[in-house]
Design a protein that fits this description.
By secondary structure, this protein is of the alpha+beta class. It is built from four helices and six strands; from the N terminus they run H-H-E-E-H-E-E-H-E-E. The protein has a single domain, classed as Thiol Ester Dehydrase, Chain A, CATH 3.10.129. The protein is 33% helix and 38% strand. The protein has a six-stranded antiparallel sheet with strand order 1-2-4-5-6-3. Strand 1 and strand 2 form a beta hairpin.
């Protein structure tokens, strides 16, 4: 049995399987009871105003939720896709796009995990906050599907 993926494995997976993450400078920062955290510098993801480009902010938020599932299922060969998503931009991001995927309620996670284990496929809605200087700059919500590889 192979060991469960680590933060290093998640970042390596992103950079190998989703090549744009290298150009974005994406880094996996944490995965704990507070959620899964990724960051990307605005310097590599800026718009004409030198603030975070909306598409990059959306991508980093999507990747935070994706990584939360990929690590949370502890299965290297799981296939994760986003089926639907929305984002609200609340304020500019000036230095670092920091996206935190918030853990779902324990009962929601348990139901998702049980269905995935039983059927090899499950879906869940995940929420991500993009924060800078202690303030929420964007709110993302996505419906993700996980399938056994």
């Amino acid at each position: 049995m192979t060991p469960a993926p680590s933060l290093f494995d998640a970042e390596k997976y992103f950079h190998e399987q989703i090549p744009i993450t290298r150009a974005m400078g994406l880094r996996v920062m944490a995965h704990d009871e507070n959620g899964f955290v990724v960051e990307a510098p605005v310097a590599l993801n800026s718009n004409h105003l030198q603030t975070g480009f909306g598409g990059s902010i959306n991508a980093v938020a999507t990747l935070a939720a994706y990584g939360f599932l990929w690590l949370g299922l502890q299965e290297r060969n799981v296939h994760v896709v986003v089926a639907e998503s929305s984002i609200r931009f609340l304020r500019p991001v000036r230095e670092v796009i920091r996206a935190i995927c918030l853990p779902p309620a324990p009962e929601e996670w348990a139901a998702f995990h049980a269905k995935f284990t039983d059927q090899g496929k499950a879906r869940i809605t995940l929420r991500v906050n993009v924060v800078e200087a202690g303030q929420v700059a964007a709110e993302f919500q996505g419906l993700f599907v996980a399938r056994s590889g």
